[in-house]
Design a protein that fits this description.
eight-stranded parallel beta barrel; binds zinc ion; alpha/beta; binds L-rhamnitol; about 425 residues
C-alpha cells in the first residue's frame, strides 16, 4: 500500500468514505466491452458498408479483420483495464465455418460458439445485440416497422434467433445476457403517417419477445434514439415509444438508454433515477456524443461522472446493466477501448468514493448553501491516489504506463496486418 494511498484514505475517511470498501465494490461491477469498436462496426457476415444511420470516420491502420484478430485486440484492451468485464457481441459478428454462412434470420447458437469459448476461457459474461443494419433486407431504411410483410417477417425471425442465441450465451456462461434491440428505422423527411410504422414496430417486437426465454437469464432491451444520419425527420423507436413499450412489457423487457440518443441539452444522469422509480432493472449504453450521436470515446467528463454517481447513490448498481457503445476509427482502436473502459471505471470508483449520505442529508435539511460548498470541496479530494491503488489491486497500470503496451502492440501486431 503506498503512503499516498494511506493519506488519501484518511482524507476520504474524514468525509465518512471507506475507500477500501469503494475499491472492493468497484471491482465487482460488470461492464460490457463492445466488440464493434475493434472493426468500425463492420462484423463478419457482410462486405458492405456500415449504414442504418450509423457512421464511423477515420481509417487508422491495423483494424481487426478476422475473429482471431478482433479477439486478440479485445484481450489486449481488457488486460489494460481494471474491474469485471463482460463482452458485448453483435449478431453481425457470427463466425461461420467455410460453406456454413446463413442469412441473419437463420443464425444459430453454433455460429457463436467461438465467442462462447473465448468468454468461458476468461470467465466473462456475454451480452448480445440484434443487427438490424448494414443489410440488403433494410428496405427504404426500414426493418421491423416496414410496410412490406416479407421484410418485417425476415427481421422478426432475426430477433427470435437472437433470443435463442442469448439464452445459449446465458446458459453456457452462467451469467445473464442482456440482448439489445435497436433499429435505425425512420424517415429522412416529414412523414405522412407517424403512427402506422410505430404500431408495426410494436407488433414486431412483441412477436420477437414471444419466442420462449428465461427472463432471469435473458434481458431483452429496447433502445431509443432521437435521429440518425439519413433519418433526420422521424425515428420510429423514439424515446416515448421505447419507454412506453418497456413499461407495458416489464415482465420481459427493459428500457435501454444510450446517452448519445437525446437532444444535447438532455442528460441521461437525470433520466436514470426517473426510470429507477418505475423499472426494476434498466440498461445503459455509455458513450460520448459531441454535438450529436457521434459516439466519441468515453472520457472522464462531467456527465460521465454524473451518470455513475446516480447509479451509485440510487443504490442501483445491481439494477443497472452497463455497456460501452462508441466507435472511433481515427485513432488506435485498442487505445480507444482502453481509454473508454478506464474512464467509466474511474467514474464508478469516484462515485463510490463520494460521501452521498452526507450530501443527501444537507439537501434533505434544506442546507443548500453548505451543499453547494461541500459538493465543490469533494471534487478535489485526492481521488487519483485511490484510482492508482485500485489499479494495483487489479494488476493493471494505474498511470500512463499502459500506453507503452499500446505502442508495442501497434508495432508488433497491428503494423503487420
Ligand atoms: C446506434 C445505437 C446502437 C449501436 C450499436 C452498434 O445509434 O447506439 O446501440 O451503436 O448497436
Ligand atoms: Zn447504443
Amino acid at each position: 500500500m503506498s503512503t499516498r494511498y494511506e493519506s488519501a484514505k484518511e482524507m476520504f475517511a474524514k468525509w465518512g468514505v471507506d475507500t477500501d470498501k469503494a475499491m472492493e465494490a468497484a471491482k465487482k461491477i460488470p461492464v460490457s466491452l463492445h466488440c464493434w469498436q475493434g472493426d468500425d462496426v463492420i462484423g463478419f457476415d457482410h462486405d458492405g458498408p456500415l449504414n442504418g444511420g450509423l457512421q464511423t470516420t477515420g481509417d487508422y491502420p491495423g483494424k481487426a479483420k478476422t475473429p482471431e484478430e478482433l479477439m486478440a485486440d479485445m484481450d489486449k484492451a481488457m488486460s489494460l483495464c481494471p474491474g469485471t468485464k463482460k463482452i458485448n457481441v453483435h449478431a453481425s459478428y457470427a463466425i461461420f465455418e467455410p460453406g456454413e454462412a446463413v442469412d441473419r434470420d437463420k443464425i444459430e447458437p453454433k455460429h457463436f460458439k467461438k465467442w462462447v469459448e473465448f468468454a468461458k476461457e476468461r470467465n466473462l459474461g456475454i451480452d448480445f445485440n440484434t443487427t438490424f443494419f448494414s443489410h440488403p433486407m433494410q428496405k427504404d431504411g426500414l426493418t421491423l416497422s416496414s410496410p412490406d410483410e416479407n421484410v418485417r417477417k425476415f427481421w422478426i425471425e432475426h430477433g427470435k434467433a437472437c433470443i435463442r442465441i442469448s439464452q445459449y450465451f446465458a446458459e453456457e456462461t452462467g451469467i445473464p445476457c442482456v440482448m439489445n434491440i435497436w433499429t435505425g428505422d425512420g424517415f429522412k423527411d416529414v412523414p405522412a403517417d407517424r403512427m402506422t410504422p410505430r404500431m408495426l414496430y410494436k407488433d414486431s417486437i412483441e412477436q420477437i419477445l414471444s419466442e420462449p426465454f428465461d427472463f432471469n437469464k435473458v434481458k431483452p432491451c429496447v433502445e431509443s434514439k432521437v435521429f440518425g444520419i439519413g433519418v433526420e425527420a422521424y425515428t420510429t423507436g423514439s424515446s416515448e415509444f421505447t419507454l412506453s413499450f418497456a413499461a407495458e412489457h416489464k415482465d420481459k423487457c427493459l428500457p435501454l438508454m444510450d446517452n448519445g440518443h437525446y437532444h444535447p441539452t438532455e442528460v441521461v444522469s437525470d433520466k436514470i433515477p426517473a426510470l429507477l422509480c418505475f423499472f426494476p432493472e434498466i440498461a445503459l449504453h455509455i458513450t460520448r456524443g459531441v454535438r450529436w450521436d457521434s459516439d466519441h470515446v468515453v472520457l472522464l467528463d462531467g456527465e460521465t461522472k454524473e451518470m455513475a454517481k446516480e447509479i451509485v447513490r440510487c443504490g442501483a448498481i445491481d439494477r443497472t446493466y452497463m455497456a460501452l457503445d462508441f466507435f472511433d476509427a481515427s485513432i488506435n482502436r485498442i487505445s480507444a477501448w482502453t481509454v473508454g473502459f478506464r474512464s467509466w471505471q474511474k467514474a464508478l470508483l469516484f462515485a463510490l468514493c463520494t460521501p452521498h449520505d452526507k450530501l443527501k442529508a444537507l439537501q434533505a435539511n434544506g442546507e443548500f448553501t453548505e451543499l453547494m460548498a461541500m459538493q465543490e470541496e469533494v471534487k478535489l479530494l485526492p481521488f487519483g491516489d485511490v484510482w492508482r491503488e485500485y489499479c494495483e489491486h487489479c494488476s493493471v497500470a494505474g498511470d500512463e504506463a499502459w500506453f507503452d503496451e499500446i505502442k508495442a502492440y501497434e508495432n508488433e501486431v497491428l503494423k503487420n496486418r
